[in-house]
Amino acid sequence: MTRSKGCFITLEGVDGAGKSTHIPWLIQTLKDQGLPVVSTREPGGTAVGEQLRQLLLHQPMHLKTETLLMFAARCEHVETVIRPALEAGNWVVCDRFTDATYAYQGGGRELGGAAVQALQDWVHPDLQPDRTWLFDVPLQVARERLASSREPDRFERESRDFFLRTQAAYHERVRNQPDRFLVIDASQTIVAIRKQLEADLLELINRAGGAQAAGNLSEHG
Fold first, then answer.
1. Fewest 10 Å CB contacts: which of 13, 63, 113, 180?
2. What is the pLDDT of residues 23-44, one digit of tens each?
3. Which residue blocks in 17-138 are alpha helix, DSSP H?
């Protein structure tokens, strides 16, 4: 797929890692640089996807059903939101993408990566994020953050061992594709995290050819 100026950024991490805290900042920062941006999430992002999200987060189901529904929502999302936005030159910021399926279903639920890879090859063989920010935090910190938040969904209620496997699967993704990932120590202060994110964003803007915007971002930082 040919893209002129758009960029696909995904944010990943176990529940409680804190990634969602930085999404409004990221969207506003991109808009402040005059860059067209689409903000979305998975599972979800479309009318069909949001209905499937409710099932996935709250309805117990077989692991194969869960994985297939994740990719059903993703297929609709890619074809009707992500791909058209990128082809139009927009920046797309997505809260979770296929790395989450490798981590949660492949790792946490022990499905393994082969089935996830097969579905990825069918649903979006030619599409990968340009950059994935993995928010990494000690599991105990993540669980403490979850304990003080809203009523947990069925993934957030999973065991410590589940999340250890999920984290390990994320780290394996980083080892396999190190150039795509930026791993952030999410136990740092918000100021320290955003300084790291801003530096990486500057690099992405430069790479996309937005030299003027990148200069403005550098001055802003």
1. 63
2. 999 999 999 999 999 999 999 9
3. 23-32, 47-58, 63-77, 83-87, 98-101, 113-123
Domain span holding position 154: 7-212
Provide the residue type at 155 as one letter: F
Of 77, 128, 132, 91, which Cα lies nearest the Cα of 7? 91
CA dist 52 to 43, 57, 77, Å?
Answer: 7, 9, 12
Is the distance from CB of 136 to CB of 185 less than 8 angstroms? yes
Dist CA 75 CA 117 (whole Å) = 14
Sequence-distant (≥ 6) Cβ neighbours of residue 164 within 8 angstroms: 139
* pLDDT confidence of residue 5: 62
State the amino acid at position 21 in one-letter form.
T
Predicted pLDDT of residue 17: 86
Residue 218 forms part of a structural domain: no
pTM for the predicted model, two decimal places: 0.90
Torsion over CA: 107, 72, 59, 143 (sign): positive
What CATH number has the domain bearing residue 201?
3.40.50.300
- Asked if the structure places residue 114 within a domain, the reply is yes
221: in domain: no
In a domain, 219, yes or no: no
- Counted domains in the chain: 1
